[in-house]
Amino acid sequence: MSAGYQLALQQLTDSALPTGAFAHSLGFESYIHRELVGDEGSFGDWLGAFVGQQLTYSDGLAIRFLYEGVELGVLDSVLSAQLLAREVREASLKMGGRLLEIGGEVFPSRELEAYRQLVREGSAAGHQPLAFGVIARSLGVPYEAALTAYLFATVTSLTQNAVRAIPLGQNAGQRVLRDAHDAVAAAAQDIAQLCWDDFGAVSPGLEISQMRHERQRARMFMS
Fold first, then answer.
1. What CATH architecture is 25-215?
2. Is the pTM of this model over 0.90?
3. d(CA 65, CA 68)
4. How many angstroms separate the CA atoms of 75 and 126, rounded?
5. Longest dimension (CA), the chain
6. pLDDT band at residue 150 under the 50/70/90 scheme
7. Could you give the CA distance from residue 214 to residue 85 in angstroms, rounded to a whole number?
8. Contacts of 8 (CB under 8 A, 6+ apart)
9. What is the distance between the alpha carbons of residues 207 and 194, in angstroms, rounded to a whole number?
10. How far apart are CA 133 and CA 141, in angstroms?
């Protein structure tokens, strides 16, 4: 990997990138509310399930299909349809919109501008994994490097949010991240074996918990 896109990829996946990821739990706050997640071990279990199921079969598979040349508009519409929980769908669009804006200023490309134009026209919604994939591919980042970087960046932001919400200690958060290495590697292997019919096949339990979050009385996060 050349130094040029190594640095660009680090910038894209840095937790300080202002996409608003700090405001989203993507459902784990519901598990905290129900006292199913409350320490390092239980959060690690939830995170492993989230990576192996929802992140694998939606975001991760979308990035693979994007790199394989599936039409961007098709991927965008299918992602919108399969993200059943309203808050999670809105989270993808809010973070995707910010990433498209940041990318347009910092990493402009013809491919990225075409996606931004689809969003402006209302022909696409602008989902986070697709925005990331378009930027990464235009920078020449290889597929496997882009995929694992995206998966681990998501794991990192969720763990940082759990450190605040549960709360976990900073060292506990680092242990969770280290344990998540295997989950991310396994997810990347699984994604390589999946087909179009697998796209969006997510655990109902995760989705139901994400839907419950909409009506949770006290919340720290938007999703």
1. Orthogonal Bundle (1.10)
2. yes
3. 5
4. 10
5. 49
6. very high
7. 9
8. 107, 139, 141
9. 21
10. 9
